[in-house]
Amino acid sequence: MTDPLPDVVRTDKRFEFRVGDDVAFAEYRLKDDSVIFPHTVVPEAFAGQGVGKRLVEAGLQFAREQKLWVRPHCPFFHAYISKRPELYEMVHPDERPGLKAKA
């Protein structure tokens, strides 16, 4: 089955998912050896379609490729990672105490 959703695109400040005039995005900043994710916006038009998940996964893939620590300051990134202990090793050690695995 072909995925009907377009790809996430990385710009110099954010990861974007765009359909027509609707844009979902996850902002990021590079600092030293880390990528900081401060803010994510997913419009109601994309609700329930997995767009937020795709934005997070694109950001995490970028961090892997660039060998950067992840600093999930955005509540959406934080919640996504908190539910997946296998991702904790990507999070900067200073920020790991705030992660909690959820059952």
What does this structure look like?
By secondary structure, the protein is α+β, with helices and mostly antiparallel strands. It has a single domain, classed as Aminopeptidase (3-Layer(aba) Sandwich), CATH 3.40.630. Helices cover 23% and strands 28% of the residues. The chain is built from two helices and five strands; from the N terminus they run E-E-E-E-H-E-H. The protein has helices at residues 51-66, 75-82, and strands spanning 9-10, 14-19, 22-31, 34-41, 69-71. The protein has a five-stranded mixed sheet. It is globular, with a radius of gyration of 14 Å. It starts with 8 loop residues before the first strand and ends in a 21-residue tail after the last helix. The model has no long low-confidence stretch (mean pLDDT 90).
Question: What about the largest sheet?
Answer: 5 strands, mixed
Fold-level CATH name: Aminopeptidase
Indicate the CATH class: Alpha Beta
Strand neighbour order, sheet with most strands? 1-2-3-4-5
Radius of gyration, in angstroms, nearest whole number: 14 Å
Mean pLDDT: 90
Tally of separate helices: 2
